[in-house]
Automatic annotation (TrEMBL):
<dbReference type="InterPro" id="IPR016130">
    <property type="entry name" value="Tyr_Pase_AS"/>
</dbReference>
<comment type="similarity">
    <text>Belongs to the protein-tyrosine phosphatase family.</text>
</comment>
<dbReference type="InterPro" id="IPR026893">
    <property type="entry name" value="Tyr/Ser_Pase_IphP-type"/>
</dbReference>
<protein>
    <submittedName>
        <fullName>Tyrosine-protein phosphatase</fullName>
    </submittedName>
</protein>
<feature type="domain" description="Tyrosine specific protein phosphatases">
    <location>
        <begin position="130"/>
        <end position="174"/>
    </location>
</feature>
<dbReference type="InterPro" id="IPR029021">
    <property type="entry name" value="Prot-tyrosine_phosphatase-like"/>
</dbReference>
<dbReference type="InterPro" id="IPR000387">
    <property type="entry name" value="Tyr_Pase_dom"/>
</dbReference>
<dbReference type="Pfam" id="PF13350">
    <property type="entry name" value="Y_phosphatase3"/>
</dbReference>
Amino acid sequence: MEKQRILPIQSGLNFRELGGYPTQDGKTIKWRKLLRSGYLSVLKKTDKQFLTDYGLRYDVDLRSDYEILRNPDPTIPEMVHISASVYPFTAHKKMSLKQWWKNIFHKDAHQPSILSDPYQLMVLDQHAQAAFKELFQILLKNDQPNQAVVFHCSAGKDRTGIAAFLVLSALGVDQETIDTDYLLSNQVLFGKMPSLKSASGTKSAAIERMNQARNVNLQSLHLAKQAIDVSYQGMTNYLHEAMNLSDKKLEQLRDLYTE
């Protein structure tokens, strides 16, 4: 198959390859091993077949239980679905999504704090960290050739963007390349993001508003990086302490996903 950054999925959202990115030690990420995307619930038969032929074996779903219940991922032959919800954050598990939205996103845009910015919470909150730890465990499990992992949320830009940031960092990709991949969501989604099927009620409205509120911007991603630098004194310590990845496991990841 042709090597393509944006995969030719007709009925999916923001389907992209992470293969081909260079690492700082002179290697590149293998193609057909790491995929990122938005929701999969409307995939057509031809797209499912494409992904089966592509080698997709693991589907790490970063959405909330409610999102999964409303729009479950499809069954694809040989693919295993893993739920690893990033939301709700630990401090907000008993809060309605309407109140959660109000508290998390109502902030001074010029002076975001670690206590209020959702991107910083995604890398610091224990519940969110558990989701990303699960993703890394699946990446380590995907140790056979010609098999791929996809990780996704609803729009494939925020939760998925943070997941890609962590995964690419673990594989030794430099920040400038990570930034470029992160911003690619704006190009892919601009004017093309369909409305998700919605049920009536506050929960649906809050999640859809969150997913469609804005394009991604580097300030948000860099705030997450800043939170890691301040709280863990850098990405290496974060991967060791928050993601439970020893030097041996990081070496194993790089062996599996780079060449």
